[in-house]
Amino acid sequence: MxxxxxxxxxxxxxxxxxxxxxxxxxxxxxLEGKIIARAHNQVDSKKDxxxxxxxxxxKQVQDILxxxxxxxxxxxxxxxxxxxxxxxxxxxxxxxxxxxxxDQSGAMFFRENLPLLFKQxxxxxxxxxxxxxxxxxxIFLQGEPTKDLxxxxxxxx
Length: 157
Known about the structure:
This protein is an alpha/beta fold. The chain has one domain: Cytidine Deaminase, domain 2 (3-Layer(aba) Sandwich), CATH 3.40.140. The protein has nine helices and five strands; from the N terminus they run H-E-E-H-H-H-E-H-E-H-H-E-H-H. Strands 2-1-3-4-5 form a five-stranded mixed beta sheet.
């Protein structure tokens, strides 16, 4: 399956994020069967709250995305946050494939229903979740950054 092939690449990026001490979230962007961008979460290592995997990947190829409107697919190991959702819409990414969603991770800090927002937006984004969910969830739970979120009550154990 193509979705699984590209999600495996996103998982590789999540593993890099984990090794660097960041939330283990990875992302790749595919266009016409080829990966055109790849990134991993770097919020902690760069001390930059905007350095989400999705944002970093989109920044690499903004011009290509806008030249190829409604053709690219973004693969992410973790459901995009509202900030990344905005970047997805603005850059005309047609499809988002997520490994795990916010409910599966126990996250409590974003209660928006992003799949519903994707559907309600003027620019419809196809949203698929659950691709290689077990692998994505496993690596997410290995992340040391989650300890602070558990302590702060933002995610469940």
